[in-house]
Design brief:
globular, 60% helix, alpha+beta, four-stranded mixed sheet, 4 helices, 4 strands
């Protein structure tokens, strides 16, 4: 009986995890919905009062970007802030019309 309950509990948790991940917010969706935008420093920022899901997404993306920027800086013997600035410039240039970018006056739609 206990084994069966454990199997059912495990299946339920797995199903819940799969459902929650299938509903997870993608970066493109978050940008299109105006929840996140590109910043000049090469990282994502949350726009306005974005919810916890958008904040978590931005944090995850920023962590991965930071690792990539550090590797590029190390490989090229370049200061990290120079790599970040160049990445930010490129990300803003490549941002789709209607998505947010951060400028000197704050967030604006491109």
């Amino acid at each position: 009986m206990q084994t069966r309950c454990l199997v059912l509990l495990t299946c339920g948790l797995l199903a819940g995890w799969l459902v929650s991940n299938s509903w997870a917010l993608s970066l493109e969706e978050a940008k299109a919905k105006g929840l996140v935008g590109e910043k000049p420093n090469g990282y994502l920022g949350t726009v306005g009062t974005a919810g916890a899901e958008a904040q978590a997404l931005a944090g995850d993306v920023n962590q991965k970007r930071r690792q990539a920027y550090e590797e590029i800086a190390r490989r090229n013997r370049t200061p990290l802030d120079a790599v970040e600035a160049l990445a930010g410039e490129k990300a803003i240039q490549n941002t789709k019309q209607g998505n947010f970018v951060e400028g000197s006056g704050g967030w604006m739609k491109k």
